[in-house]
Amino acid sequence: MKNWKMALGVPLLFGMLYGCSSNKATDETGNTTVKQEETDTNTNTDTNTNTDTNKDMNNNGQAGTTQNLPYNFAEFSLDVDYSPTESYEVDYEYETTGVEVELDDDRNNIKLRGDEALAKLEPMFKKLKFDASTANDEVIDHVISVFGIDKNYTSFELEVKFADGTEKEYKKTK
User: Fold this and answer.
1) Averaged pLDDT score across all residues of the chain
2) How distant, in Å, are the alpha carbons of 8, 52, 53, 118 from that of 49?
3) What pTM, to 2 d.p., does this model score?
4) Any idea of the CA torsion for 5, 11, 14, 18, to the nearest 10 degrees?
């Protein structure tokens, strides 16, 4: 009888332990993501609802040259200063593990992270129609228009990493 309990108990215990384990993890923004497991076919699956399936990421989780990004950029960092204590900041980073998004608007007392920030910024991101070859002044004017930036800013800084891996900085001070 003791051996019978042991014969049933051990596999049941392993089954419970396996069932309790999970590939889910939570990132700093509180979004649940699925850890990637290496396979011979090198297929990536992402269950974060804010991202598309991405097949052309390199091993560091950085944007490849032909990937299917939701926008024409993998990273977007905007910092507009109005005074030493007032600024407007947007940070967006697309990775294999999900999307990191932040919005800090001191003038309107808005601080959003994760899904809330993406919901607010997504309509603006969709309107951005420039690439690495667009003239700097044209990019700056376009971003100011799309984001509704007050023209009374003291400095404008934008860093973009495009889908093809090109990184560009756009700066303007008054």
Assistant:
1) 75
2) 40, 8, 10, 11
3) 0.62
4) -140
